[in-house]
Amino acid sequence: MAFARKRRIDLLPYAMIAPIAALLLAISVYPALYAFWLAMTNASLLRLARAQFIGAGNLVRMIDDPVFLEGLWRTLRWDLAVVGSELAIALPIALLLNVAFRGRGIVRAAMMVPYITPPAVVALLFCYIVDGNFGVLNDLLVRAGIFKEYFSWLSDPAGSFWVIVSAMVWYGQPLMALILLAVRQTIPAELYEAARVDGASPWRMFWHITLPHLMPTIWFLLLLRMIWMSNHIDMIFIMTQGGPGFSNYTEAVYSFKLTTQFEIGYASAVAVALALFLVTASALYVRHLARSVLSS
Amino acid sequence: MTAQQTRQVQRVLIYAGAALVLLYSLGPFLWIFIASITPEIKANWGLLSGRRASYFPTEPTLQNYADLLNNSPFALYFRNSLIIAGGNMVLTLAVASLGAYAFVRFRFFGRSSLLVGMLVAYTIPSVVLLVPLLVIFRSYGLINTHLGMILAEATHSAPFVLLLMINYFSTLPRELDEAAQVDGCSRLGTLWRIILPLSVPGLVAGGLLAFIMTWNNFLFAFLFTTTNAVKTLPVMMRLFAMGEPAVWNVSAAGAVLTTLPVALIFLLFQRMLMSGLAAGAVKG
């Protein structure tokens, strides 16, 4: 009897999972493994059949490639600028939208709209806003007397960086604001009542009640957004193609540019190196967080 | 200052803040909309530098929208975006709700490792997948096909909707399934006749988020399509952003029409979509 029961494996759940498992195997898992293989070849899209296995050859090339090496710093700079600005804008918005006022529902919905806008449209919007001829930004700056004449933002390395960062922050910060707002709503109101009875100022309440409650979420958001931003391509590629020069070549953009130039072996190597670096860094970071939580 | 005055000052500050948030979030849209109804300068290239920022259209017109539809393949790209986003929505909902039901209601060997595997698949970044998918799609003739685009977009949407549906199905009481089976309903019949009808809010949220993700995605469309017959709107928006062709007010009309469908979906189904958005639906 024991045997009979063991042999009756229920196949239905496997059959139900089969479609999505097959789909993900075909379009995610297998391609990811294939990327590892490509990363060890000198494959070009134009002569794919003649691709040769070169082992760590691409790694050697990376270590000697100034675009890749400087790309590490450019990626980190991009991550920090975007994620830091997102937090600086999202936190006040989340706290404001937690206060009850007439029309709050409308403001909450409006706040989210940039996040569901296609990134390509966001890029177009910001290209137009900073345009050297008809852009609003130049017009306002000249009218206010801050600039003497129109400035060509996207042709300037620093100018283009901050314009792309602004576009990215405008597009991405609603996610942070939404999540911070959701967490803020879970802080018990009694804590604030008690503090008010004790005569605490709003600033002290923020510092001693709100911020400590939000901190775990903030750390999590910073990590998550840093990873996403390291992999982000759209906004930079659409607005300046990584230019002017190499000034906005993050590793992800570099890999994408290599792909469009058909150098797919090296492009894969850069992408895989980036992914492995991010996985390692975030694993170490999570372990560090877990340790500090456990020890406290 | 009396307590009453303090409260009034607070009130003013709150509304000032709210106004600022509205201006920041919607201002660029307002500006691009104004640009889209401002007459296009149809002059020679020498006059391009004569363009100036405009805030109020002195003579509003819909001519830019007509020009966009008549002189560019916008309508075709719109149709492609619709086919690909709609197709992806159907594919994703079908495979994800089937799989999610199995994960929630069945206990079987390898259940948790399969689930973890799908989570890992969800975290593989596009940067890594772009090149291998390009090579694979070329060898299987999926470049320049709607099917190829639908499949590529499923790399993000299928695992995401799977998680969403697992969460949703978990909230439905198990007694429902048991009662249905006592009444002689098969297990697939239970999913089809009992669970899915009760899960409409979850299905709507998952389906629409998959639609929005696909509608907005640029990278796959840029890399896997070379002909107008399959290209999607974000690819056209990139050309417009680069000033090709140099018809800014017509391009503005294109940007408005590209955003309109997803903005309408979001505003109509806001309540259902919010929690999914908080889960990080639209990646990166």
List the helices and strands and how they pair.
The complex is a heterodimer of chains A (296) and B (284).
Chain A lengths: L1 H6 L4 H28 L17 H7 L2 H33 L5 H13 L2 H11 L6 H8 L13 H28 L4 H9 L4 H30 L2 H7 L10 H10 L3 H32 L1
Helix pairs in contact in A: 2-13, 4-8, 4-10, 5-8, 6-8, 6-11, 8-10, 8-11, 10-13, 12-13
Chain B lengths: L2 H34 L26 H9 L2 H32 L5 H13 L2 H14 L6 H25 L3 H9 L4 H12 L1 H17 L2 H6 L8 H9 L6 H21 L1 H9 L6
Helix pairs in contact in B: 1-12, 2-12, 3-6, 3-9, 4-6, 6-9, 7-8, 9-13, 11-12
Low-confidence stretches of chain A: none
User: What is the number of helices of chain A?
Assistant: 13
Number of helices of chain B: 13
CATH architecture of chain B: Orthogonal Bundle
**CATH fold assignment of chain A:** MetI-like fold
Query: How far is it from the N-terminal to the C-terminal residue of chain A, by CA?
Result: 54 Å
State the shape of chain B. globular
Radius of gyration of chain A: 25 Å
Distance between the termini of chain B: 48 Å
CATH superfamily of chain B: MetI-like
- Major sheet attributes of chain A: none
Question: Can you walk me through this structure?
Answer:
- The complex is a heterodimer of chains A (about 300) and B (about 280).
- By secondary structure, chain A is mainly α.
- Chain A has one domain (about 70-295): MetI-like (MetI-like fold).
- Chain A contains 13 helices and no strands.
- Chain A has helices spanning about 1-5, 10-40, 55-65, 65-100, 105-115, 120-130, 135-145, 155-185, 190-195, 200-230, 235-240, 250-260, 265-295.
- In chain A, α2 (about 10-40) packs across α13 (about 265-295).
- Chain B has a single domain (about 65-280), classed as Orthogonal Bundle (MetI-like fold), CATH 1.10.3720.10.
- Helix content of chain B is about 75%, strand content about 0%.
- Chain B has 13 helices and no strands.
- In chain B, α1 packs across α12, α2 (about 65-70) packs across α12 and α9 crosses α13.
- The radius of gyration of chain B is 24 Å and the shape is globular.
- Chain B starts with a helix and ends in a 6-residue tail after the last helix.
- Chains A and B meet through α2, α4, α5, α6 and α7 of A and α1, α3, α4, α5 and α6 of B.
